[in-house]
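anyone seen this seq b4? input:
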Amino acid sequence: MSDYKKPLPEIDEDSKPFWDAARRHEIVLHQCRECGRFAPLQYPLGGTGCLEHGDANMEWVRASGKGTLFSFVVFHQTIDPAFKDDLPYNVALIELEEGPLLLSNVVECNNEDLTIGMPLEVVFEDITEEESLPKFKPVG
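predicted toks r here
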């Protein structure tokens, strides 16, 4: 883990609970205490407040870690040499079972086998002693 060369997540006060949970191998979502709705886009996409009640009414709650493939792109070139050995790699938008979208990667699956709507579940890549990345793999 100590030789991880790719960019690390930029953790700030707002995203720290998300990354703390990822380190525990959990997914947490920002949910409104008033209406129960989840923020539609979860970290790292931003927009973590309630559309009706604002940021002040939000709390972090544990999610199921299940979802479906909403959209994806496969990169065949990169400008960052740290990703060169991963080519081609996917970047995926996962629609979590609870409704919000999360940007990640699908692993344990050939890029050619990715299909919109395929069921996925979270797995974690421990990249340093302090940080883990949520990734998703096909169910089954």
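The chain is about 5% helix and 35% strand. The mean pLDDT is 91. kinda curious what u guys think
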